[in-house]
């Protein structure tokens, strides 16, 4: 396995159990909290939102460069993910992704006319993977005893 393959596996394995982050367009510094569904085999993240949101309205004119930032100390993943965000009318994908959580936002369920699916095609990511919060505590304590700098994990960039 190459370093790139190993890094990709670490990224997707840790992202799998994490379901939210901050999403926005690169042309606008404003990021908003959004839940994502990861699809490692296609290199995509999917989001369910409302057509009336600023983000969905901004995409009405076409696909845009976007960023999604995820952070979870317990999972040991911190990443800034860049790619292209687009509106999607894929009803089969919406059916696949629909959940009790998503239904809480739309009174008519997935048939609600305000439901909008977003597809995020990943281009690259800057990633930090750590051993998680317990490992971090151990590394700090160890550095105090040994005088060595703590080993907080790996930092790498991925291209998709």
Automatic annotation (TrEMBL):
<protein>
    <submittedName>
        <fullName>General stress protein 26</fullName>
    </submittedName>
</protein>
<dbReference type="InterPro" id="IPR038725">
    <property type="entry name" value="YdaG_split_barrel_FMN-bd"/>
</dbReference>
<dbReference type="InterPro" id="IPR052917">
    <property type="entry name" value="Stress-Dev_Protein"/>
</dbReference>
<dbReference type="InterPro" id="IPR012349">
    <property type="entry name" value="Split_barrel_FMN-bd"/>
</dbReference>
<feature type="domain" description="General stress protein FMN-binding split barrel">
    <location>
        <begin position="6"/>
        <end position="151"/>
    </location>
</feature>
<dbReference type="Pfam" id="PF16242">
    <property type="entry name" value="Pyrid_ox_like"/>
</dbReference>
């Amino acid at each position: 396995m190459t370093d790139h393959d190993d890094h990709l596996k670490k990224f997707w394995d840790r992202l799998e159990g994490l379901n939210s982050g901050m999403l926005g367009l690169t042309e606008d510094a404003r990021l908003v909290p959004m839940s994502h569904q990861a699809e490692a085999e296609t290199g995509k993240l999917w989001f369910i939102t409302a057509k009336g949101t600023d983000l969905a309205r901004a995409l009405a004119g076409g696909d845009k460069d976007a960023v999604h930032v995820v952070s979870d100390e317990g999972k040991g993943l911190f990443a800034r993910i860049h790619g292209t965000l687009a509106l999607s009318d894929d009803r089969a994908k919406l059916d696949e992704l629909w959940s009790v959580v998503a239904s809480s936002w739309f009174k008519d369920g997935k048939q609600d006319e305000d439901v909008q699916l977003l597809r995020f095609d990943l281009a690259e990511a800057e990633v930090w993977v750590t051993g998680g919060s317990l490992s971090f505590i151990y590394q700090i304590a160890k550095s105090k005893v040994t005088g060595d700098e703590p080993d907080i994990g790996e930092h790498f960039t991925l291209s998709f």
